[in-house]
Design goal:
Layout: E1 3-10, E2 18-26, E3 30-40, E4 43-47, E5 50-52, E6 54-56, E7 63-65, E8 94-96, H1 103-124, H2 168-173
Antiparallel strand pairs: 1-2, 2-3, 3-4, 5-8, 6-7
């Protein structure tokens, strides 16, 4: 299995630990998005995509993140659950969505992503720089061979906002109530 593409989006806030987001493509067939490049004590490292861990409210059953003091649904005060701990004794608040199974794979990803990150930082200093990473939604992802530049990105089947059908919410915000969904 080979990494055939790495796209990097640099963060614009100097001094922050989060340096960039990236996506990697394996064998021109499988993409993993939202890897993070974080500045660590010994240099940058790659963090895998993750999600916040949750617990359920004892009153209404709604999911809430582990550090929540009150339920997002019913407002009940929550007890802090006994979160799992990592090897250093820190509470585990996130779980990886995708991750390498062995250290050889992790090292391969780390080396390739950090190399692409360094190249992207150098490219960012050039005039006319455009990031190689796009924030694609699931519905409008374009493979690298047919990639559409952001300025030319279509808006679905509708070319202009005037041609786009109006939703009920949009109609309520529209200043002209004379015609529309309420007729």
């Amino acid at each position: 299995m080979d990494i055939t593409e790495v796209r990097v989006k640099l963060m614009e806030e100097p001094g922050e630990r989060l340096q960039a987001f990236c996506s990697i493509t394996f064998d021109d067939a499988f993409v993993v998005r939202d890897l993070k490049i974080i500045e660590g004590v010994t240099g940058p490292f790659v963090a895998m995509p993750s999600r916040k861990l949750t617990s359920h409210c004892p009153q209404c059953g709604c999911k809430n993140h582990l550090r929540a003091s009150f339920c997002n649904q019913c407002g009940k005060r929550l007890k802090e659950p006994s979160a799992a701990r990592d090897d250093d004794g820190r509470a585990k608040l996130y779980a990886d969505i995708a991750h390498p199974i062995n250290s050889a794979c992790r090292e391969m990803i780390q080396q390739r992503v950090i190399r692409a990150f360094e190249e992207e930082k150098a490219n960012a200093k050039m005039p006319g720089y455009v990031s190689s990473y796009d924030d694609f939604d699931a519905d409008d992802y374009a493979p690298p061979t047919t990639r559409i530049q952001p300025a030319e990105k279509p808006r679905g089947p509708h070319k202009t906002p005037a041609e786009k059908p109006q939703t009920a919410t949009a109609a309520l915000h529209n200043k002209d109530f004379g015609a529309g969904i309420f007729d």
